[in-house]
């Protein structure tokens, strides 16, 4: 059964429903004793640990993968029901997050194979860390991304309290739309390339990927700066909450991109030449020297 795609969807779907119910219950229990933002964090961590434990049960760390895109939507919709504030700024924030989150989750679903396969990075970490892998998985693969996304979505949570709108808010919204669309086109081009008849050992060199080595990562980075800009546009004293977008950017620059490029260099023909003529993120053609 583990090899069947629909079975995998059913198992992961059940896991996420239970994780949501656990988080929602815990949120309601702790809310009277703390702030709403701390209550969300506690519920978020509890749901993450639950997903981690079920990942151990089904022997697949990739059970956590859709959490990245589902988490912000659940949080923002929960706060929408709590704050009960509705104006143009909040509508734009919700639209931006729904567009980003639904698209990213759909891409995960499209690429999901079965419970028999998991992300290559997890296999690599498992091979390197051996018996310590369960602990590395809990901290590095599950809790760390959850905390990064929580901090990145925190400006949206603050924005949901009162909303607001001005031209700078609209600019932030447009950055979010650009970011999610960039990811959409990059992923579509990648999937088409994978299905096309070509030498699988060669690096992708079409569309956005012809000029940027990681256009999908660029979209993810821009998304959370756009969310921060929307919040900052209505309260410029809250600049400190840009820490989430900054940490998210750092995670891609210092962890995700180096790991991906090391792997690509090891099995893709022409990667070094491709690296020399393309930019890391911005899909802008390099000047020929």
Written overview of the protein:
By secondary structure, the chain is an all-alpha fold. It has one domain. Helices cover 71% and strands 0% of the residues. The chain contains ten helices and no strands. It has helices at residues 5-30, 36-58, 67-83, 88-111, 120-129, 133-159, 167-195, 215-232, 243-267, 271-277. Helix 5 (120-129) packs across helix 6 and helix 6 (133-159) crosses helix 9. The protein starts with a helix and ends in a 12-residue tail after the last helix.
Produce a short descriptive summary.
The chain has helices at residues 5-30, 36-58, 67-83, 88-111, 120-129, 133-159, 167-195, 215-232, 243-267, 271-277. 71% of the residues lie in helices and 0% in strands.
Give a topology summary.
Layout: H1 5-30, H2 36-58, H3 67-83, H4 88-111, H5 120-129, H6 133-159, H7 167-195, H8 215-232, H9 243-267, H10 271-277
Helix pairs in contact: 1-2, 2-6, 3-4, 3-6, 4-7, 5-6, 6-8, 6-9, 7-8, 8-9
